[in-house]
């Protein structure tokens, strides 16, 4: 269950860019689409790094929660 939650969060990060662009909502997705159309490479790299750090942090939290939830993984 934890793995599915972590992976779903990653899909939602990627989907938020599309949703913000389609519905013209202000946010990070609209910013990165505008930066791509203006060839603003530092902005695109910054948003990509920001989203990847958030995704890696969520995966780290999920991995650490495995030890709290599953008693088979506890040290004896």
Give structural notes.
- This protein has 76 residues and is mainly alpha-helical.
- The chain has one domain.
- Helix content is 79%, strand content 0%.
- The longest helix has 29 residues, at 41-69.
- The mean pLDDT is 87.
Taking pLDDT < 50 over at least 5 consecutive residues as the criterion, the unreliable ranges are none
Structural class: mainly alpha
**How many strand elements?**
0
Radius of gyration: 16 Å
Average residue-wise pLDDT: 87
Largest sheet, strands/sense/barrel? none
Count of separate DSSP helical elements? 3
H/E series: HHH
Assess the beta-strand content as a share of residues: under 5%
Gap from first CA to last CA = 24 Å
Count of all domains: 1
Helicity level? over 70%
Shape field: elongated
Key structural traits:
about 80 residues; mainly alpha; about 80% helix
Could you write a compact summary of the structure shown?
With 76 residues, the chain is mainly alpha-helical. It has three helices and no strands.
Topology, please?
Elements: H1 2-22, H2 28-37, H3 41-69
